[in-house]
Amino acid sequence: MSERHMKLGAFLMAGGHHIAAWRHPDAHADAGSDIAHFIELARIAEAAKFDMIFIEDAAAIRERNADLASQAARSTAFEPLSLLAAIAVNTTHLGIVATASTTYNEPYGLARAFATLDSLSGGRAGWNLVTSASELEAKNFAASGLRPHSERYERAEEFADAALKLWDGVEDGAYLPADGAAFADRTRLHPLHHHGKHFAVDGILDSQRSPQGRPIMVQAGASDVGKELAARTADVVFAASQTIGEAQAYYADVKARLAKYGRAKTDLKVMPGISPIVGATDEEAKAKHRALQELIPDPVGVALLASYLSIQDLSSYPLDGPLPEMPPTNLIQSRQQLIVDLGKREGLSIRELARHFAGARGHWQVVGTPVQIADAMEERFAGGAADGFNVMAPLFPSGLQDFTTLVVPELRRRGLFRDDYEGRTLRQNLGVGAPASR
Ligand SMILES: Cc1cc2nc3c(=O)[nH]c(=O)nc-3n(C[C@H](O)[C@H](O)[C@H](O)COP(=O)(O)O)c2cc1C
Fold it and tell me: Which residues make up the binding site for FMN (predicted)?
């Protein structure tokens, strides 16, 4: 058995990550509103011993373009913390990671909600900290619209520090101390007195310290300031990279930032996305992929591409021509660059890029047999590009089942993935160690 096992997360998204999943004959078209569907997916992931499931979020519908919104089946979603509370009581070992925004929350409220999720799951919660780049989301909270990138990150830095201190403000054994003298041992409670630029918090969380110390911190920012925040505070980073070279560069970059915060390279797990399309044969996998791609109407693909490029519209450009020059963006800078690079590298037209992106939304897609997919994952895992993967099945539940029943056994055969959970908490299973209680 290999010393180092890859970490696996299942990135769940209603009917599937493929933009046209809801139109597929096997689709569960109402998936975004069906709790039984999400519980089924969580149980599939847990039976396969996945480290975690992950729920993305924006407090808004996902598409600003009406054509796209009406075709994309991504406009109904459960609020992640509420969804994961339901999943917590239907699972026992699986990590549950919810996205929540530092731009539209306050540290006390969110730290409290995650402390609750962590406690009721027995130490399995994680927080994907996002700064929220969606303009639609901004409109739901502030008349002034989306705040600048730098301001969102400045707020995120202060937010993360306050949340971490709130969780660390309650020591192990602070309540019901062994001597039975009192309900709370006040020497083990450390109120936070935070008066910063964005927040004021004077208080202490109304919960016990979690079985895993505090929730796992996850981030997925790829800008310089995003990677720096991750290096300082995150246990896991998600990423989107197409080529192994891009993935290796991202991996090396984030890991190199850890030392200045007194952290070891193993303290932060890098888990890029993979969109696997699995077939018993290569031909079967390609046919599955084709069947999904043919369901994407061009206007939907092009509108989705425009939204990932953070521009209003691409429809005035010839579909079979190259991408026009892109203006600078305040939204997701890294994703725009990734698309521009891919278009240039492979000489893709707008139509081709649109189809490509609609499929896996900029993530790495592998179409093949279990052996081919395991080869590709092993190459990145062994080649300094990943500590694990965030698996983004194109279609749920069948795409996740294909992965767990066909690819996971192949990974195990190679000694690359666990046979059973190492522990009960997400922190134990990820192997990132419990933070010291202060
Ligand atoms: C796998 C993955 C999942 C993400 N999930 C979310 C999400 O749920 N909500 C969100 O607002 N942003 C999400 N993002 C975006 C990032 O968190 C980040 O905000 C974005 O990349 C902009 O920051 P940057 O400029 O530092 O890259 C995700 C990114 C990746 C790669």
Answer: 57, 99, 149, 153, 223
State the CATH number of the domain containing residue 250.
3.20.20.30
Closest approach atom of ligand 1 to CA 219: 17
Phi, psi of 303 (to 5 degrees): -65, -40
Burial of 281 (0-12, 13-18, 19+ CB in 10 A): exposed
Measuring from atom 23 of ligand 1, which residue has the nearest CA?
A: 221
Question: Does the annotation flag 131 for ligand binding?
Answer: no
Q: Is 308 annotated as a binding residue?
A: no
Q: What is the Cα 415 distance to its own chain's centre?
A: 25
Ligand 1 binding pocket (C-beta < 6 A) is: 56-58, 99, 130-133, 220-223, 226, 238-240, 273, 332-334, 390
Nearest CA to ligand 1 atom 3: 220
Is residue 331 included in any domain, yes or no? no
User: Which residues 6+ apart lie within 8 Å of 365 measured at CB?
Assistant: 274, 275, 276, 277, 359
Assigned domain for 377 exists? no
Closest CA to 246 of 372, 356, 342: 342
Largest CA distance in the chain: 77
Distance CA 15, CA 2 (A): 35
Q: Is residue 116 part of a domain?
A: yes
318 lies in some domain = no
Name the band, by pLDDT with cuts 50, 70 and 90, for residue 2. Answer: very low
d(CA 236, CA 255): 11
Check the annotation: does 153 bind a ligand: yes
Query: Residue of the nearest CA to atom 18 in ligand 1?
Result: 221
Percent residues over pLDDT 70 in the chain: 95
Residue 361: other Cβ atoms inside 10 A: 21
- In whole angstroms, give the CA distance from residue 161 to residue 229: 10
Asked if residue 167 lies in contact with residue 119, where contact means CB atoms within 8 angstroms, the answer is no
- Pairing mode, if any, of strands 95-101 and 52-55? parallel
- Is residue 14 within 8 A of residue 31, CB to CB? The reply is yes
Q: Alpha-carbon distance 193 to 166, whole Å?
A: 10
As a 3-state breakdown, the chain gives helix, strand, coil percent values, each rounded to 5, of 45, 15, 40
pLDDT, tens digit, for every residue of 147-200? Answer: 999 999 999 999 999 999 999 999 998 988 788 888 889 999 999 999 999 999
Q: Domain range holding 131?
A: 7-276+364-372+383-430
> If you write DSSP's letter for every residue of 369-399 in order, what string do you get?
-HHHHHHHHHHHHHTTS-SEEEE--SSTTHH
Structure tokens at 270: 């890098």
